[in-house]
Amino acid sequence: MKIGEASRVSGVSARSLRHYEDEGLIVPGRFSNEFRDYCQSTIDRVLVIRSLLESGLPVRLIREILPGHTDGSDTGTDRVCAEFLHEVQGYRDRLAARIAVLRDQQAALDAYLRQARRTDL
């Protein structure tokens, strides 16, 4: 299918599809006129990519896991998965630390606002 139909079927913009290709996340086929040709397996891969991006994972991590995860080979899969899970855990821990800082900042602002409202009375 051409990029317009692939966009409609996947719910991902044509621009995003081109970006995924530029990032090496997908490799669509080509028609004889050099238009992109998206097969169902590429669309399935796009849906996985979209889900991983929405979960907050950076493209670098997604690029590392997808080849071993979707090419059908089991070569080194356990090692790749263990390394990937370690990196995802690290990413999640950094995210949790940032959330904790933001919660502290929010609490400080809430306290300030409560105090400011009391002095207005």
UniProtKB/TrEMBL annotation:
Print the keywords alphabetically: DNA-binding, Repressor, Transcription, Transcription regulation
What positions does the domain HTH merR-type occupy? 1-68
Is the DNA damage keyword given for this protein?
A: no
Keyword Ribosomal protein listed: no
What highest taxon heads this organism's lineage?
Bacteria
Please report a single Pfam family linked to this protein: MerR_1
Task: Name the Gene Ontology molecular function terms of this record.
Answer: DNA binding; DNA-binding transcription factor activity
Entries under InterPro entries matching the protein: DNA-bd_dom_put_sf (IPR009061), MerR-type_HTH_dom (IPR000551), MerR_fam (IPR047057)
UniProt protein name = MerR family transcriptional regulator
